[in-house]
Design a protein that fits this description.
Beta-Lactamase; alpha+beta; 18 strands; 4 domains
Amino acid sequence: MFSDFIDLVKNKTTLLILLLIGVLVSIYAGKLVYNRETDAIHLSFRRDFSDKVQALSRELFLMVEVVYGVKNLYDCSENVDYDEFITNVHSFLTRHGDKIQALSWNPRETAESIPSFLESIRNLSPDFKEFEISERNEQGLLVKAKLDRESYFPIAFIEPIIGNEVAHGFDIASDPERHETIISAMNTGEIHATPTIDLVQQKGRGVLVIAPIYSGKPKTLEKRIEQLDGVVVGVFKVNRMVDKALRSTASQNLTIEIMEGEFPQKPKLQAGVLSKASFIEIPAGDSFKSIYRSSEDESVIFPNLSDFAEFDTITFANRTWGIKGTPFQDYVEQRRTFAPFLVSIFGTFLCLTSFGYLFRILAVQEKLKDLTMLDSLTKVANKRGIIDYLNYEWKRCMRDSQSLSICMIDIDEFKKFNDTYGHVAGDRCLQEVAEALQKAATRSVDLIGRYGGEEYCLIMPNTNDPSTVAKSCLDNVADLHIPHSGSSCASYVSVSIGLATMIPQKDDSLTTFLKAADKALYEAKEYGRNQIVIAKEVEHGHALAGDVIKPGLRKSTTRQPW
């Protein structure tokens, strides 16, 4: 199997492409690990954010329960006096006083009932002698309320009174938004919350939770409007509630922002299931008002944090708040690991190491090929290389119906040359003859090889005029003018050539083809050497079958003496 793979990547270009693919796959694997890590961080943050939302939801519903507690006092008693109100409310303030700005009773009054109402309140305590119903004018200043409205909801009882003296007597229905909330509560018989307000007594935001109080148990809208006695109001400190809720959960490395406005409804899901569908998309636009932010949003500095941001809603007392959570940069960095980097680096290193090893194998294989396919003396193909190439071209020419030409070349009387000049000179002669023959084979598909001893072979696929190439071989060797005093056909080294050409057919034999070229070589030697004989089997070319081609006269070239 490994050898099959080596055969596949014998081309170095292919190997380089595979190396590039391996590096890209390693980088992609690192990216996949990074994405999985990002998903894990996102899921972890989603869980932490969900914990914050649930903690805040518990706080808000606890505040609603406080208002329900005061409402139950009025539902269970026909006439609640000031002392009874103070006693019952005090228990709520003891448990939740840090988050409650005030709890109040606001009776429904008309212009006709206001004088008796004022007298009843002023008689409760010497501190209330100056009690008046107040409202805010256009400049935001507290002034005495104008008796020009159908109904009033002044604060009659309020606890704690200390710190809320200014609010005592304030008509909450004088504000359009609060009046609208009172109407909604009255019409539905349910508790409603107002939009958040700026607390007058201290810095921060507050929310009013209003519960309607009826005389009797009205069941229709008309009866509820007719039998409304007043409202119980709880004023809660938004900052204190949210801060306490956020501190009650473990993770603190995130920013929580609370907004109010109209939000899309959250899809209903199976209880206990936490998924992306558990949350809604972060709303865009200017229709939402930010009422709280736990800290500065670092996504302004690090935009990538916005990818982790989550959004959810909480509905309490018929009002919906939007909650947006964004992690700190530390939150993400603490959960990042070197795994993606290591995967990419290790994969790339493994690819480089593996392919470096393969490069070495290919280099060794090429050297082995040179040793097995090339003649060590002449550096041309040896007999094995000739046979392999001849087999390949024979099959290709048979498939493509192309001609195949072969020249069997032999150095004339080379034994006498060795005897006369020695084996060192003989080796040099073999090398120079090989070079001369290679110059004649000008095409890349032409192969010259040493067939054995002083015999060479030239393979020429799809050659239009093989005799011309053979003549160039004859002339190039003659042009070397290597002295050969023992030759009977020339005073210099010469060659005899047997040429055969044919278009291989299915029933033809390569062995017969070689024998034809070898027979032509034998005839060239018989005819006196230093010439070309074209085998009778030749079918193409300008020379006729059985023709003899002899070298022309050449001018001598200056050479170093042998």
